[in-house]
TrEMBL record:
Molecular function (Gene Ontology), one example: transcription cis-regulatory region binding
Region annotation (Disordered) ranges: 170-210
Gene3D superfamilies: NAC domain
GO cellular component, one term: nucleus
Membrane topology note: Single-pass membrane protein
Biased composition, class Basic and acidic residues, residue ranges: 197-210
Record's keyword annotation contains Repeat: no
UniProt key word Iron: no
Protein name per Swiss-Prot or TrEMBL: NAC domain-containing protein
Extent of Polar residues compositional bias: 173-191
Length: 210
């Protein structure tokens, strides 16, 4: 069931923080405790869809060019750490370093100590074609994963959460050099048919690290 913006209270915007995405949404999804308030994020195997097809699968219809999805973990190799991020038209490539997500409430982080690490965020950029000659596009995803042992269900199984958005594409040719991926979890390869200033600036900064 989609949730049109017109049916929501005036002024409503779905702009969860990184900490809220991990603590309130991803953990509940992993534990099977998703309630109605969390069902605004659908479960989709994002790497079986091209990025331009994903916005139409969002449950929230709004003018904000960002979309959220749960996706099952899927490894490229059964006993490996590399994730399968290939689609029919291209692939997602990790860029920059993973960012730490810390708790910001008293339940998981004490004021006397540094807030506990609850998850990690990886930035992925979609490239058309096949590596190493793929062409970078303006489609970007932030991949959120938990780091707490009680929410780790192993290499196969479990979930990650994605924030998808699109920035204006560069006019200059992109490099063909593949980035070395840091540790992260992600899903596997639907057939085709104003982001937050903070997130866009953050993504731009990370993409520039090649």
């Amino acid at each position: 069931m989609t949730v049109p913006l017109q049916s929501l209270p005036l002024g409503f915007r779905f702009h969860p923080t990184d900490e809220e995405l991990v603590n309130h949404y991803l953990k509940r999804k992993i534990n099977g405790r998703i309630k109605s308030e969390a069902e605004v994020i659908p479960e989709i195997d994002v790497c079986k869809c091209e990025p331009w097809d994903l916005p139409g699968k969002s449950l929230i219809r709004s003018d904000d060019p960002e979309w959220f999805f749960f996706a099952p973990k899927d490894r490229k190799y059964a006993n490996g750490h590399r994730s399968n991020r290939a689609t029919e038209k291209g692939y997602w490539k990790a860029t920059g370093k993973d960012r730490i997500i810390r708790a910001k409430n008293a339940a998981t982080g004490s004021k006397k100590h540094k807030p506990a690490v609850i998850g990690m965020k990886k930035t992925l950029v979609f490239h058309r074609g096949r590596a190493p000659r793929g062409v970078r596009t303006g489609w970007i995803m932030h991949e959120y994963r938990t780091t707490e042992p009680e929410f780790d269900s192993g290499e196969q199984g479990g979930y990650v959460l994605y924030r998808l958005f699109k920035k204006e594409e560069d006019k200059t040719p992109s490099s063909n050099v593949e980035d070395v991926e840091t540790t992260g979890l992600s899903p596997s390869p639907c057939k085709s048919s104003p982001v937050d200033a903070q997130h866009e600036a953050e993504a731009t900064e990370e993409i520039s690290i090649h």
